[in-house]
Design a protein that fits this description.
single chain; about 425 residues; alpha/beta; Urease, subunit C, domain 1; TIM Barrel; 2 domains; about 25% strand; globular; binds zinc ion
């Protein structure tokens, strides 16, 4: 049996154009797959009424594909909005002390559950997530995600290089690798929703030995790698001092084998021409995190350059440095970094990110056979069914926030409903 969601349907199959069916529908099967979508014309009405499908009338609402967050940190989400002078100060002052306390599984289940629910509340159903250094905490994150049905790529943070006075955990290289592989074996692809990403925190906190071992394992097993790159000038200075034989930060990653089509680097702000070339050559993906970059005054990523080089990207909230889970907010900030049309911003928040993560056969857009991951969104005030596509997307992008999210569905199942 199919369920028909009648609504204004917007879909973002490419960066240039959006599809818009002002009186549209989305047909979802019992198994949570998209069976059809488009214009709710007489033929479709007759066809689906004859089949006695359940029809849910959302004609006063807009339905868009659910959002994909390409970069955020589970142990930091309660620390959003803490003022910090710069990335390294903020890490030292707030983040590292907090991450170090999250190790007891019994105490952390509700914390983790809230994190996933906050994403659903914002219309996000898929995320690439940094956990903490704790194997148990990371294991617990997977358990909670499986229990509630959240789609996630999660990784335990790896740090085996003491680079500052910061109380960042310094693991033995072997232990860090062993625990990560154990988690990978247990969780990667254990169902259709969960994957593992090897997650060296960032260049200064990793040894060359660790990166090489991660790179070799990931290459042999086609595994994800998730890390940060060139977020601040201070970080680049650290790389220069710690690893002087590399010409650039990106070359440090490249020569230690961690760049590739399944590697996602967050931020990528301060890059030289040769570094864009290395990212493009290795088909490495970028998580563009404009809100976090504004918050910590890290700088502006050159997304035009990334597009020119054909580097695939998506958007990341980078919670907790980013103050909001809402991809509407991140899209708006992406526009403030560089003037991009709303349809393009929506593409990066949906199918663009799915492609970057290699999950576009299942999510990111409305296509027959894909998982029915979507968000029911309210029209912003002073905006109604009659507005043009361009105006609607612009209004959602500039005025949208989690208050516009009415319901969120993943694989056809309602996982969030706004109260009141
Ligand atoms: Zn981050």
């Amino acid at each position: 049996m199919l369920t028909i969601f009648r609504a204004r349907i917007c879909n973002f199959p490419n960066p240039e154009n959006a599809q818009d069916f002002p009186d549209g529908f989305l047909a979802v099967s019992d198994t949570g797959k998209i069976s059809d979508y488009g214009k709710w014309d007489k033929n479709k009405q007759k066809q689906y009424r004859q089949k006695q499908c359940k029809i849910i009338d959302y004609s006063n609402y807009v339905i868009v594909p659910a959002f994909i967050d390409m970069h955020l940190h589970l142990p930091q989400f309660h620390l959003r909005g803490h003022y910090g002078v710069s990335l390294l100060d903020w890490l030292k002052e707030y983040i590292i002390p907090a991450e170090n306390t999250l190790t007891v599984p019994e105490k952390t289940e509700s914390f983790i559950r809230t994190f996933f629910q906050e994403m659903w509340r914002s219309g996000t159903t898929t995320a690439l997530i940094f956990s903490s250094n704790s194997m148990h905490f990371t294991d617990q994150a997977f358990k909670v995600a499986r229990k509630i049905g959240f789609r996630a790529i999660i990784g335990k943070v790896m740090t085996d290089n003491k680079f500052s006075s910061m109380k960042m955990p310094v693991e033995k290289t072997e232990k860090s690798i062993r625990e990560s592989i154990e988690l990978y074996n247990k969780w990667h692809g254990c169902d259709d929703l969960l994957y593992y990403a090897f997650s060296p925190r960032f260049g200064p906190a990793a040894t060359e030995k660790l990166l090489r071992q991660v790179g070799d394992f990931a290459y042999k097993n086609n595994a994800y790698i998730h890390t940060h790159l060139a977020e601040t000038t201070g970080e680049i200075e650290l790389i220069r001092n710690l690893f002087p034989r590399y010409k650039t930060y990106t070359e440090f990653y490249y020569k230690n084998n961690i760049l590739g089509p399944k590697t996602i680097v967050a931020h990528a702000i301060y890059l030289k021409e040769s570094e864009y070339k290395l990212l493009a050559k290795t088909h490495t993906k970028v998580a563009h995190c404009p809100s976090s970059n504004f918050f910590l005054h890290s700088g502006l990523a050159n997304t035009q350059k990334m597009e020119d080089y054909g580097i695939q990207m998506g958007l990341g909230s980078d919670v907790g440095a980013g103050p909001s889970f809402s991809l509407f907010t991140i899209m708006r900030d992406a526009y403030y970094v560089r003037n991009i049309p709303p349809a393009q911003a929506f593409y990066y928040a949906t199918l663009g990110a799915a492609r970057a993560l290699g999950l576009d056969d299942r999510i990111g857009s409305f296509n027959k056979g894909k998982d029915a991951d979507f968000v029911v969104v309210k029209y912003p005030y002073w905006c109604n069914k009659d507005v043009s596509r361009t105006r609607l997307l612009s209004q959602l992008m500039f005025r949208g926030d989690d208050h516009l999210t009415i319901e969120t569905y993943t694989r056809g199942k309602k996982v969030y409903q706004k109260i009141g």
